[in-house]
Amino acid sequence: MHMFHTLTDVQSGAPISLLRCIDNREDNLCIGLRSISYTVGWYNVGPQESISWRPGGSTEATETAKVTPGLYRFAILRNFINRLGVNLSIRLDNVTNRVVLRIPVGWEVQFTDGLLSLLGLDDGLHGEWLNSGTYTGDHSIGFAGLKKLHVYVEQLSTTGNFVDGAPSTLLTTVGVGLRSPLGAIETIRFENLELKRLTDGLISELKVSICDDYGKIVDNHGQPISVVLEIC
After folding, report:
1. Across residues 57-70, what is the average pLDDT?
2. Dist CA 222 CA 212 (whole Å)
3. The domain containing residue 166 runs over which residues?
4. If residue 76 lies in a helix (H) or strand (E), which one and from where to where?
């Protein structure tokens, strides 16, 4: 017998009570992800990121441009920086995947730490003003952001289910990357289920957690994530 459970707003990671228990007392049921729907609410540029500039030798910022939170590709942020009006320019070295930042003579520029981290620059961290000159990225740019959604189900049996050699309640992973802009609504359906065993007994609730590549629950900033689980 196949059962389908649609769970909405699972982004909080809270357990969801079932009106009808799943009877797995015979320990023969498996679970799989049939589909996942989400509104993209994660981003790689958070709130309070900005760029400030002033004439060289000055002690106060002449102007500050706030960067709107969002899911940015390098080209979008590059265009924003290059249009600031002080002849500031940034480009990407496609061989090294590192940025080259040029600050014109007579100006100083300050980036917030989040932007510097995204651009792979150590120069300018912790509020330091950058003098005129050319700066090369210390690391590759970090625009890849969230690459996969890792779907965990707490009621999954860890018997025979391992991740990197350790027992796990990971059901499956879903690739996302940067293909969708902030606010986009996506639905991904799976024709071939990756089935995992449920814990035995009567199951009265299901707890689904959507985590990032580092095992932390994805902060989707209030945007919904829902899943359809198939049990057979």
Report:
1. 85
2. 16
3. 3-42+146-231
4. helix 74-82
Structure letter (DSSP) for residue 125: G
- What DSSP letter does each residue of 4-57 carry, written as one string? EEEE--GGG---EEEEEEEEETTS--EEEEEEEEEE----SB-TTEEEEEEETT
Same-domain status, 151 and 129: no
Name the domain boundary from 105, 136, 167.
Answer: 136
Give the pLDDT band of residue 228 (cuts 50, 70, 90): very high
Asked whether residue 182 falls in the same domain as residue 207, the answer is: yes
Residues 88 and 119 placed together within one structural domain of the fold: yes
Token reading at 193 = 């289920």
Domain assignment of residue 177, yes or no: yes
Indicate the average pLDDT of the chain. 91
For residues 28 and 101, membership in a common domain is answered with: no
Total of domains in the chain = 2
Q: Which one is predicted more confidently, 85 or 110? A: 110
Question: What's the pLDDT tens digit per position in 154-206?
Answer: 999 999 899 999 999 999 999 886 567 778 899 999 999 999 999 999 999 99
Q: What is the DSSP letter of 217?
A: B
Q: Report the chain's C-alpha Rg in angstroms.
A: 23
